[in-house]
Write a structure and sequence with these properties.
The chain has 124 residues and is α/β, with parallel strands linked by helices. 36% of the residues lie in helices and 13% in strands. It comes from Reyranella soli. InterPro entries: YeaO-like.
Amino acid sequence: MPGRKAIPAHRIRLKRAYRPAATTDGLRVLVDRLWPRGVKKSDAAIDLWTKGIAPSTALRQWFAHDPVRWPKFRQRYAAELRRHRKELAALRAEARRKTLTLVFAARDERHNDAVVLRNVLLGR
């Protein structure tokens, strides 16, 4: 977007919900539709839960964390995210001000919704 300052990639981090929070995390945003199993809300240190922009239940169930479906999942989730311009703009604004850590529960740290969301926020 012309006139918009790009967000430095290091300002948007990814972290599993099962790893302890750190002061360097900045704003911790849970990006999953479901709360991570076995994680106490008091221990999670989540500042914001964006379940409304998480992948739809149908998309999440179809993907089932199958790396073979990853390319198609990325496309479909990015398409879903385009319907949430206001929420994405708010997250980008936060990332321009401070570090944003997208918190997710998936075991696979390379193939999950937080990876897609980060790329969309960074304009990739």
